[in-house]
Design brief:
This protein has 199 residues and is an alpha+beta fold. It folds into two domains: 5-120, no CATH class; 126-195, no CATH class. Helix content is 29%, strand content 35%. The strands form four sheets. The chain has a four-stranded antiparallel sheet with strand order 2-1-8-7. It has a four-stranded antiparallel sheet with strand order 3-4-5-6. It has a three-stranded antiparallel sheet with strand order 10-11-12, with helices on one face. A hairpin with a 3-residue loop joins β10 (155-158) and β11.
Amino acid sequence: MAEEQRAFGYICPDCGKPVFGERTHFALCAAASGLVCGCGRSELTAEPFGEHYRVTVPCGACGGEHRAEVPADKLLHGPGVALACPESKQLCCYIGDAHQVRKALRELEITLEKKKEHMDSAFVDNNIMYEVLSELKDIAARDGISCTCGARGCGMEIHGSAVDLICRQCGARLRVNAATDEDLDRLCCQYTLTIRGGV
């Protein structure tokens, strides 16, 4: 009869690949166990320490390394353990049944990939930003943007989550948020926009 095994999984913070491995109960109880990524630049370790295991996890979420003490019975038996990054609150390590760990690793890989794409994007939400800019263009086209100083029209400064409308005459600004559906809905309800500038 094959000896019961526990699976370990994490995302390598160096190469970004999922790292999966299994260890027997005997190996886990006998001494510290390690799981090294194929790139050789990260390693998860689990070391028995009394009634607990000291687990060191390379974190694919924040790029650092975290340490946790896990009760031995949870690490060796039952549904398993998920460890989270204290910075991002994102789960970063799974220990337990091989099928469950593989499934969780796939989900984590997708989540981190989406997060990376989001970080690479210039805007918090590209679609919302483009819709807001389109709406502002329509308002400007009907001469709907003015300043209390008497000037018509404006300049624009685009940020990750907002657009600043700038009066070309007095330099006053009006910030239009452009990150959520609510921001877009709020703007769509306005026929004109007024920058509060010099009188």
